[in-house]
Amino acid sequence: MEIYLDKRAVRQIRLSAQDAIEEGDIETLREDILEAFTEEQVEEIERRLDNGDFFEFLTDLLDEWSGDDADELLELLDTQLGDVGVDLKFEKRAAASEEEDEEADEAADYEDDEEFEDDDEDDEEEEEEEEEEEEADE
User: Fold this and answer.
1) Distance between CA 10 and CA 70 in Å, rounded?
2) Segment holding 18, helix H or strand E
3) What tens digit of pLDDT does each residue of 54-81 get?
4) Spatial distance between the Cα atoms of 95 and 14, rounded to a whole number of angstroms
5) N or C: at which end does the chain have fewer Cβ atoms within 10 angstroms?
């Protein structure tokens, strides 16, 4: 079985994991991970689990997690679900992709600014040429 978590779900898990790292709130993290899956997905996962309880599965998963890194948590989730026959697909670097998008936007803004600066320089050169011509005419 294949389950796809969209960027929003992955982002929520990452944010919740970061909160858990900073504040030690594993309960909220477990609930946020659970909410990232649809009811149908949870039911399918539970059919594949020995104990049939996804909440308990997440409890065990979080006990195994070092509590230091959101990426590690996502990898652990992927591995543990893979062990029960669930292929988890998600944007592993959602945060990195956002950062890259922001950097690209900033670069584009900078390039736009440079174009305006170039235009300003061209205008200044034209004005200087005009002034020189006027002075020559006088």
Assistant:
1) 10
2) helix 7-23
3) 999 999 999 999 888 999 999 999 999 9
4) 8
5) C
